[in-house]
Amino acid sequence: MKILKNYTITILLSIIIGALCGLIGSFFSKSVGFVTDLRIQNNWLLYLLPIGGLLSVGIYKLCRVKSIGTTNVFDCVRTEQNLPPLLAVAIFLGTCISHLFGASSGREGAALQIGGGVANTFSRLFKLCDETRHQLIMCGMAALFSAVFGTPLAACIFVLEVIWTKLCFKAAVPVLFSSISAYIIAQLLGVHPERFNMGNLPQFSLTLVWKIAVIIAAGILAALVFCKGLDLGKELAKKIFNNEFLRIAIGGLAIIALTLLVGNRDYNGGGIDIIEQAFGGVVKYEAFALKIIFTIICVACGYKGGEIIPTLFIGATLGGSLALALGLPIPVGAAIGMAVLFVCATKCPIATILLCCEMFGFGCITIIAPAVLLSFLIARYKGLYKNAPYML
């Protein structure tokens, strides 16, 4: 009876965490949307990117948050490691700064950190035991991801899959409740879930199989370049510019120069609008490569936000452009590309399938599931999260 009582309490706490993270996630999503619109309406803000970077580093130092990333939040569940109490504040403000001034970054990686930080602070405040704290941190991560992206099932499975400890079996129900409650709160507060229309799926044929195989192979290679490029970029940036303020300022200047060289603002910010264009049948062959370059520079130099949306951008534009060249419907190629890039980067095949089903509709599973599983089995290199366990 005591075990059942404790588990019931954990579930109730997970719902509270979900509701709290739903509120915070809604505010975070609307804040990022607001600063993004502000940047689009005022192109001159890009030229303040180096100053924004300096401000971001200053905020992290004031909050006493140093060298904390999404991987550290995952590790907090596996170990006794604690999270800085102001982590959520620092990454919230840092991500808004990145989007306001045009750094190439996402928001879902930040959401995982905010959710983990909020749940960790909640657990410490009420002096909960370590096991409950670990479960609630998972709940917080899933809840913020769910609130911001609008994919409660994928958010739940992603957190369980990427952490993958014995505790995950016990935490599965609380994490699901937290994810769903956050999603409901976010929808009530007007946060729009990310949804894309694949259109009609092509009929099965051997020709279709080899065309999809080309997109899978290209996606696996692109994900390898992206993940390894991020590692190498971080290493070189720290070696060349040891000072954090100088590093992020130089990175901002590089992004300004690249933007002017490219001649458009497609690669500043997260790029959801470009993903939507791909599903509308409009793609550029060079888009995926440029997004890789922009994102590597921003992440390596210290701009905050995360890599998940850029990963989906790369997948959508690569898959869409290959579909155009191969004679496939562009939205279908974009969807396959997004799925391949996401699974190769995160090493979470079940979460990837669910993410696609929630974004594209469950009818996509006949094409997406085989592509995801094949990509996961072939791409044996490490992805974005270095301590994420391999499921197979």
Summary, kept brief:
By secondary structure, the chain is mainly alpha-helical. 74% of the residues lie in helices and 0% in strands. The model has no long low-confidence stretch (mean pLDDT 93).
What's the structural blueprint in terms of helices and strands?
Elements: H1 2-41, H2 49-62, H3 70-78, H4 87-101, H5 108-125, H6 130-149, H7 152-163, H8 167-188, H9 206-240, H10 244-262, H11 272-279, H12 287-301, H13 308-326, H14 330-346, H15 349-360, H16 365-378
Helix pairs in contact: 1-4, 1-5, 1-6, 1-8, 2-4, 2-10, 3-6, 4-5, 5-6, 6-7, 6-8, 7-8, 7-15, 9-12, 9-13, 9-14, 9-16, 10-12, 11-13, 12-13, 13-14, 14-15, 14-16, 15-16
**β-strand amount:** under 5%
- Compressed to H and E, one letter per element, the order equals HHHHHHHHHHHHHHHH
Count of beta strands:
0
State the domain count: 2
Residue share in helix: over 70%
Q: Taking Cα atoms only, what radius of gyration do you get, to the nearest Å?
A: 20 Å
Alpha carbon gap, first and last residue: 36 Å
By secondary-structure content and strand pairing, the structural class works out as: mainly alpha
State the CATH architecture of the largest domain: Orthogonal Bundle
Largest sheet, in brief, is: none
The whole-number mean of residue pLDDT values reads: 93
**Uncertain segments:** none
> What is the CATH H-level superfamily of the largest domain?
Clc chloride channel
By CATH reckoning, the class of the largest domain would read Mainly Alpha
CATH topology assignment of the largest domain: Clc chloride channel
Tally of individual helices: 16
**Tell me, what's the shape?**
globular
